[in-house]
Design goal:
By secondary structure, the protein is of the alpha/beta class. The chain has six helices and eight strands; from the N terminus they run βααβαββαβββαβα. The chain is globular and about 45 Å long.
Amino acid sequence: MKKQKVALSSCLMGNACRYDGDHNRNDALLEKLKDYEVVTFCPEDYCFGTPRPTMDLVDDGASIEAISNGSGKILSEPILDYAKDFFREHPDVKLFIGKDRSPSCAVCSGKVYDKEKNLLYTNGAGLMARVALNHGVEAFDSEVFLKLL
């Protein structure tokens, strides 16, 4: 029987791809996924390398963009391109598990700010998570997924 394919934030697998060069390995999560075929992803590492400056999701009134806290540059386009390519290359992914609070991977825990960096809300979706949801992929933050099982 073919295993269901799950897309998993690479840092949760233990890969050192966080902005600071660390990881978020989650052994409890990996145990829950032992019967899945896991495909890892990290758009931020792929696009900008590790380590890198942090970024925030900023709502400018017209759209929500990923903005570098180092340079102030808009970083959304390469992340969105990576995400679209990922799902084009993996059309059989049925489940997406993102890292909580990540501006790329959070499904329902991303912090979204206004242009002056005032916090607007804390239940936003990261850029790659939005692409997953737009593809109809069932998507969860890792902390939420662990509570479901």
